[in-house]
Amino acid sequence: MKALCYHAAQDQFVVKELERPRLLSAWDVVVRVNAVGLNPVDAKIKHWFSIVDRPSDDFVPGLDVSGQIVEKGAKVSNWKIGDQVLYHGDMRRAHGGIAQYAVHDSRTLVTHPQVTASVAAASPCAAWTAWRALVDKLNIKQQQSIMICGGSGGVGGFAIQIAKHFGIKTIAATSSVANHEYVRSLGASHVVDYRHVDAQQQLRDIVGEQGFDSALDCVGGDNDLLASELLGYEGHLVELVKTLNPERYRDSFMRGLSFHQLSLGAGHVNGESGRQGIVDSGTIVSKLLERQILRIPRLQSISLEQAGESLMAMRSQRTVGKIVVEF
User: 94 pLDDT exceeds 70?
Assistant: First the structure.
């Protein structure tokens, strides 16, 4: 089969011919890949390759897979050969989805939504994370305002749509000027250029001294400082990129701020409750895709041969919308 492999020593993605992967456990299934979504976490593999179970030049990245089960392990009882499935993969495992076949733990499979393979594959990492951040962490239904750092990216774009779905009136997002209209089209009420010298003041002017009820950082860097500074009394911040440090934030205790970490893929290694969190978010988001409550307005489909170049370009953090490899 053809697959995109990561060579750690050269920090390169290379298309290779590999044998079709085999089942690694009795819980596993082999999936014929129809489409796989590309994500920043795949692009930044050099930062986490050391945690891979079997590191080698045959390691295949790719977490978000739409496909069909062609083989299953002895303990797989609730899925059958031929089932169409969708999943968010475990980054520690070697047989990812940027290949014609992939291996995955059946306990975090989701029934494929009634949408195209490309639309489905564009959703797990970004949309399931956004859902968990806003619903499970922020309880967004009880909020009046949210600030999203990185509104034009995958997670940020879905987060805006989810906030709008729940009727949040004040949805502020940061992005480059070139993407302002795109971010507004997703439902943001306000968009601010993060590079502007007065970006913080512009954001503060939106909600005044009361501050934002909640914030989501999809970018990293010092955006946690920006977000925490703009939160109001007992505001909540979800961080997706790095570990939060509340001691750095102004009066975080006296303002009663709450902080949340979220890594969707961590559910794979945190027992049944962790796996269930992945499945629950995937099931709900699939229904929203089917009902067209969530959409993917800038969906780009590419070939396997283009995947390596696209992943390297993602490292610049300038990708807008979603990119999917179709087989």
Answer: yes
Paired sense of beta strands 322-326 and 299-302, if any: parallel
Any bridge partners for residue 101, and if so which?
32
* Phi-psi map region of 285: left, alpha, beta (phi>0 left; psi -120 to 50 alpha): alpha
Question: Which are the contacts of 198, defined by CB distance < 8 A and separation ≥ 6?
Answer: none
Given a contact cutoff of 8 angstroms between Cβ atoms, the answer to whether 64 and 39 are in contact is: yes
* Cα 325 from Cα 99, distance rounded (Å): 9
In DSSP notation, 65-80 reads EEEEEEEE-TT--S--
Tell me the two tokens of residue 234: 């007992």
Closest Cα partner for 61 from 86, 90, 31, 25? 90
Q: Judge whether 289 and 275 are in contact, CB under 8 Å.
A: no
Give the DSSP letter of residue 221.
Answer: T
Q: How many helical (H) and strand (E) elements, i.e. helices and strands, does the chain have?
A: 9, 15
What is d(CA 127, CA 275) in angstroms, rounded to the nearest whole number?
17
Contact 158, 298 (CB under 8 A): no
Distance between CA atoms of 235 and 137, rounded to whole angstroms? Answer: 12
Query: Per residue in 253-288, pLDDT tens?
Result: 999 999 999 999 999 999 999 999 999 999 999 999
Strand-strand pairing, 64-72 and 28-38: antiparallel
Q: Can you read off the two tokens belonging to residue 238?
A: 């979800």
Measured distance CA(174)–CA(152) in Å, rounded: 8
Question: Which structure tokens are listed for 57?
Answer: 């030049």
DSSP letter (8 states) at residue 150: -
* Nearest partner of 146 among 115, 174, 177, judged by Cα: 174
Output helix, strand, coil percentages for the chain, rounded to the nearest 5: 35, 30, 35
Q: To the nearest whole number, what is the mean pLDDT of the chain?
A: 96
